[in-house]
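Sequence in, structure out.
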Amino acid sequence: MNVSVVYDGKYPMRGYNERGNETLFEPAPDHHGSGKIATPMEIFLQSAAACSMVDVIDILTKKRKQITDLKIFVESERATEHPKVFTKAKFRYELTSPDAELADLERSVELSMEKYCSVSGTLKKSGCEVKYESVVKRG
């Protein structure tokens, strides 16, 4: 996997993957960002949620469960000293489904977070305490 990030003298920075897909980045407002584009650390957390979501969707689909809606909310804490790594992250999965049970979602999340998701694995291997919880709503 190869990527690049380009800064042309102004924000946002533009990241590209090998297929040419673009991701925008900028620093937080206290470092001259506009506050309109996600920071690299926010994108890292979003990536962890997206990585896990792909796994959970795949697992639930293989179980032949219907997904009306799936959301993941992540609360995090960072170290106060540089490098300000993530020290805690809590993922809350909210699934709306007419036929999935809580046990279906919990097992899917467990497989994702403990086995398949490379981004959450990276968080854990960095020393971050990662927790997760699941909620299923009918619909």
